[in-house]
Amino acid sequence: MPRVVKPKDVRRAEVLDRALALFLERGYENVSLNDLLAVSGTSKGAFYHYFPSKEALVVALAQRSAGEAFEVLRPVFDQPGKNALERLNAGLAASYQVKLGMGVPEPIAAMRSLLMPENQALFRKIVTIWEDLFRPVLTEVITQGVREGVFDTFDPEGVGDMIQGFAASIQDYLVRMFDAADAKSRRKTIDDCVKRLKLYGIATDRILGLPDGATVVLERKQVEAMMTLFMPSRPAGSLP
After folding, report:
1. A GO molecular-function term, please (predicted)?
2. Where in the sequence is the domain holding 24, given as residue range(s)?
């Protein structure tokens, strides 16, 4: 039978899928180019045809991950007939669901692996590309709010960057959840996370010239749900 030659974009997507599975299994730092060639079933020449280097493949993975999230979230931020605060809050609330993969096992497992120390290089690239992709969206929403008189800031893009920085820093608490040895430690991690989220919410409100509590933040029950998703061996009822 003649050999089936797949379109370049299909073959490239397959290489990305297999590389991601390998990174999540072994850790980004523990995967060599030869490992990627073996798992993807490509020659070195064919691999370089798709990706000039291992780092280029990682960037492509990050771009794909961020792009998929963007496709889901952009319509939420762009809802017609909403004022800027309503658009911002809808987008922030939807981001929580998207970043947790809507609770389905595969994205949760991927995120759990990405937060491990050996995958920090890959995770940082994903976060950076995510932020670059969403910067114009947040800037536009905040600029609209200034124009409407809902927000009061002289730097809409800077405020958007601060909001994204607040969101990214929550990953540190997820890592601490992994390391919590007992119920007392888990309870303290949750308490610390909820307190910090409240602070971030107030900070966002104040830099936008809003009353405290105007912007959406995760509540304790949502943080507990996040912990249950990321640590499924610990049933929800065992959380403090």
Report:
1. transcription cis-regulatory region binding
2. 1-52
